[in-house]
């Protein structure tokens, strides 16, 4: 299976190299890549360029022998927002990406001359498909450049606003960069247009606009009202450009809902104050009952014993029955067997927090794995490991089914509190 994936990836590598900036996904690939490989890839990008870095990244990737490397790569793409590339690789169908590529090369060809006769509509249809993904970043830049270099449009002095990357600092704009782009648009009368992804919906307050153009985009009704709210200048207009029947239908429903909301508000305003207050009180009481009842429903813990395996090499680490919860949110493993499964390296900067003193980092004991499992701490008088669930795979002993958890609180097993009496003297 892996051989086939490797063969396919090799066959399609030209696409990947053209699209992927590997530095966006490296942090998600840490279980698979060694530190020096990561450094090489960064250096290659800085010294030679993104495509060279992508090609080196693929070389390292294709050399990986550990089981699960391919899934790891796909997960990293998904995390970094490369949804187009993810889908293409998962289905080994690069048609959409190929079309994107045509437009990208069209833009590249046009940029030097920027003939004023070019119709933006020729370029835009493909842009929309990736407006929320990493792939669009480059195209937004191209669109900006195109406006800047087009003599009839250059007076618009476009700015760019994208979302903050999900968890990776390398993707998207940082908060200060977003603020800077918005300030330039708001206070500097020069910047007359802001090219934005759906971030305009995410509660960022954009100055009065007299024109909002939504391209192939429709959210829910709240988003729609918010987006229109962006066009707050007197007489401002909001246009939706689309050729997609589903988008049109959604927008019609939104317009209807908006009308319903406005009608309801007008009606409410005719009520007398006492009736209104009484009604609000009733609703609040009802909602409180619902909230209280929901808050108390703790998921039933799964009492069945399960295995924890190293997420990288799948080596056995411990059983859930041996896990103990320290101070409600730290997880340790009791028993001697576990101590043989990890190795520790002294922490360069030992730190204390609460009753804990962080002393070392612990890693999977398999020499060719060394996956980061967590830390070793001194807790009161005990020297104990503290593991993080995101370093492991949880395996059902009976069925062999495996599950991944990002946080301990999502993993509902029987959580036994740490008890000093259990510890060896
Ligand atoms: Zn391991």
Description of the molecule:
Zn(2+) binds at residues 310, 313, 364, 369. Keywords: Antiviral defense, Immunity, Innate immunity, Isopeptide bond, Metal-binding, Phosphoprotein, Repeat, Ubl conjugation, Zinc. Residues 102-276 form the Helicase C-terminal domain. There is one protein chain. The protein has four domains: 2-93, Death Domain, Fas (Orthogonal Bundle), CATH 1.10.533.10; 114-259, Rossmann fold; 268-296; 306-422, RIG-I-like receptor, C-terminal regulatory domain (Metal Binding Protein, Guanine Nucleotide Exchange Factor, Chain A, Beta Complex). It is of the alpha+beta class and 425 residues long. The model is unreliable at 113-134 and 166-170 (pLDDT under 50). It has helices spanning 2-11, 13-19, 35-47, 50-63, 69-79, 83-91, 95-110, 120-129, 136-149, 175-187, 221-230, 245-270, 273-296, 336-339, and strands at residues 159-161, 194-196, 211-215, 237-241, 306-310, 316-319, 323-326, 330-333, 342-353, 356-364, 372-379, 382-387, 392-396, 402-403, 416-417. It has 14 helices and 15 strands. Strand 11 and strand 12 form a beta hairpin. The strands form five sheets. The protein has a four-stranded antiparallel sheet with strand order 6-5-13-14, with no helix packed on it. Zinc ion is lined by residues 310, 312-313, 315, 364, 366, 369, 371. The site of zinc ion has 8 residues, from loops.
């Amino acid at each position: 299976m892996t051989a086939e994936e490797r063969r396919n990836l090799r066959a399609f590598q030209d696409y990947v190299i053209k699209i992927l900036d590997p530095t966006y996904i490296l942090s998600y690939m840490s279980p698979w890549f060694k530190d020096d490989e990561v450094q090489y890839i960064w250096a290659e990008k800085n010294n030679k360029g993104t495509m060279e870095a992508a090609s080196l990244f693929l070389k390292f990737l294709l050399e990986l022998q550990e089981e699960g490397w391919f899934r790891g790569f796909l997960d990293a793409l998904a995390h970094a927002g490369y949804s187009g590339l993810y889908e293409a690789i998962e289905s080994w169908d690069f048609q959409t990406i190929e079309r994107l590529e045509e437009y990208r090369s069209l833009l590249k060809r046009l940029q030097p001359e920027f003939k004023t006769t070019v119709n933006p509509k020729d370029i835009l249809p493909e842009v929309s498909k990736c407006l929320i993904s990493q792939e669009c970043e480059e195209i937004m830049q191209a669109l900006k450049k195109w406006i800047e270099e087009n003599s009839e449009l250059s007076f618009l002095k476009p700015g760019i606003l994208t979302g903050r990357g999900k968890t990776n600092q390398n993707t998207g704009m940082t908060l200060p960069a977003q603020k800077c782009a918005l300030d330039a648009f708001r206070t500097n009368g020069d910047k007359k247009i802001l090219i934005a992804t759906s971030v305009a919906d995410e509660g960022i307050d954009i100055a009065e606009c007299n024109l909002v153009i939504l391209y192939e985009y429709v959210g829910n009704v709240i988003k729609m009202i918010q987006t229109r709210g962006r066009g707050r200048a007197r007489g401002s207009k909001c246009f939706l450009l689309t050729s997609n029947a589903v988008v049109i239908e959604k927008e019609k429903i939104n317009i209807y809902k908006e009308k319903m909301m406005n009608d309801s508000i007008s009606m409410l305003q005719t009520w007398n104050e006492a009736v209104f207050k009484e009604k609000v009180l009733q609703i609040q009481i009802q909602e409180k009952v619902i909230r209280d009842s929901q808050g108390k429903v703790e998921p039933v813990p799964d009492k069945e014993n399960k295995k924890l395996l190293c997420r990288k090499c799948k080596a056995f680490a411990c059983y859930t029955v041996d896990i103990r919860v320290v101070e409600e949110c730290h997880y340790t493993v009791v028993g001697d067997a576990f101590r043989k499964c990890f190795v520790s390296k002294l922490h360069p900067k030992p730190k204390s927090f609460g009753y804990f003193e962080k002393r070392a980092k612990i890693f999977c004991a398999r020499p060719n794995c060394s996956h980061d499992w967590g830390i070793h701490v001194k807790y009161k008088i005990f020297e104990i490991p503290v593991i993080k669930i995101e370093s492991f795979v949880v395996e059902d002993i009976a069925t062999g089914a495996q599950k991944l958890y990002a946080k301990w609180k999502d993993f509902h097993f029987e959580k036994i509190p740490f008890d000093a009496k259990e510890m060896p003297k």
